[in-house]
From TrEMBL:
Family of this protein: Belongs to the Gfo/Idh/MocA family.
Cited PANTHER family: OXIDOREDUCTASES (PTHR22604), TRANS-1,2-DIHYDROBENZENE-1,2-DIOL DEHYDROGENASE (PTHR22604:SF105)
Protein name: D-xylose 1-dehydrogenase (NADP(+), D-xylono-1,5-lactone-forming)
Catalytic activity: D-xylose + NADP(+) = D-xylono-1,5-lactone + NADPH + H(+)
Domain GFO/IDH/MocA-like oxidoreductase as annotated: residue spans: 175-267
Keywords associated with the record: Oxidoreductase
Transmembrane segments: none
Residue stretches making up the Gfo/Idh/MocA-like oxidoreductase N-terminal domain: 29-146
Length: 375
């Protein structure tokens, strides 16, 4: 659906943060939150307010007073005194895990063992071996485990991927893809993003998005790492990563992927602000496809196709559909899967294999960069 038939910019922003909560279905899923996380209002609490099929019923934090204050602020009816308590509450169906990266494995495993479905913030775990263990457990327990690459569920992302794949299906060869998420130093040096003990590093932050987008939009997998050049901000911690990977799959032999991920760019640099918006580009033998602001297309995005022979650039209609946020579309997909939908039929779904391959590629980039994989 083109933007002319969709809610306008301000309406979309209002939809992303509803002031009231809709009535809930009698069989609405009951989900609890691990930790009083800053991302949870955007990723879960606000999207759930406008959905009849799910309700946020509780939050657990290691500081009970913090949990109570958080619950009051976000209109969450209950709190639990510990992560174990909320995970083992029989009245709760699902768990949302937005804890620091280094805690994903432990607490997601406990939630799955307790029979809970889990919406898990990315990256899934600290390394590929842990990711495999979690998804094997989810399969054994017949529980849904979804790594929250929310951008994939937005109609604009689904449209762009299909556009590129249709072009390739016509016999065109993908030569190069590039994904960029490159920002100034928004966070202090002691932020958890830069803490090795908590599985920090840029590839564990926006870097895993760039890698995932390369794999998702191209339909190819990382075969090997050509080069990985980190900017080290503390021992074993990358504040920036520039990498080139060799891609392989059912089409386009010889294709490469380039990624740039950074949270260390200087504030007072023209280049920093010129490249502030995340972008994805795919170049084939005849055309160049660009998806601007691919990771957060709700507020704004653009999709262009450039003809390499003529230089003509086609600006395609923006795709906002109903106007919901990426997180709302993701939550709809998660609920559908929990209620029994075949995940193969859910556009954008992040499968167990997908999560494992993404984490494997992250590990490979760290090894190529001369850094330890996260533990």
């Amino acid at each position: 659906m083109a933007s002319t038939a969709s809610p306008n910019f301000f309406a979309r922003l209002r939809m992303a943060k509803p002031k009231t909560t809709c009535s809930k279905n009698p069989d609405a899923l009951r989900i609890g939150i691990l930790g009083a996380a800053n991302i949870a209002p955007t990723a879960l609490i606000n999207p759930a307010k406008s959905m009849k099929s799910i309700i946020v019923v509780s939050v657990a934090a290691r500081d009970q007073e913090k949990a109570k204050a958080y619950a009051k602020t976000h209109d969450i009816p209950n709190t639990h005194p510990s992560y174990d308590a909320i995970i083992n509450d029989p009245e709760i169906d699902c768990i949302y895990n937005p804890l620091p990266n280094g805690l994903h494995f432990e607490w997601t495993r406990k939630a799955l063992e307790a029979g809970k479905h889990v919406l898990l913030e990315k990256p899934a775990t600290s390394n590929a071996a842990q990711t495999k263990i979690l998804f094997d457990l989810a399969k054994a327990k017949n529980r849904v485990l979804l790594e929250a690459f929310h951008y994939r569920f937005h109609p604009a992302s689904i449209f762009f991927r299909q556009l590129l794949q249709d072009h390739i299906a016509e016999g065109h060869v993908l030569q190069k893809v590039e994904s960029i998420m490159s920002w100034p130093s928004f966070f202090p040096k002691d932020d958890i993003r830069f803490n090795f003990a908590l599985a920090g590093g840029i590839m564990m932050d926006c870097g895993c998005y760039t890698l995932n987008s390369i794999r998702y939009f191209s339909g190819l997998e990382v075969e090997s790492v050509q080069e990985a050049r980190p900017k080290i901000v503390s021992p074993e911690i990358d504040g920036r990563m520039d990498a080139v990977v060799n891609l392989s799959g059912s089409h386009s032999p010889g294709a490469i992927g380039k990624l740039t991920a950074s949270l260390t760019n200087p504030y007072f640099s023209i280049d920093t602000w010129r490249n502030i918006l995340p972008s994805f580009t795919a170049e084939t033998d005849t055309k160049i496809f660009t998806f601007g602001v691919f990771v957060m297309p709700t507020a704004y995005h653009y999709i262009t196709v450039k003809d390499k022979a003529t230089g003509k650039v086609e600006n395609l209609p923006k795709v906002y559909a109903e106007g919901y946020s990426t997180y709302r579309y993701q939550l709809e997909a998660f609920v559908s899967a929990v209620k029994g939908a075949n995940t193969d039929s859910i556009p954008g779904w992040v499968s167990a294999e997908d999560s494992f391959k993404n984490m494997t590629a992250v590990d490979d980039i760290y090894r190529s960069a001369g850094l330890k994989i996260r533990e």
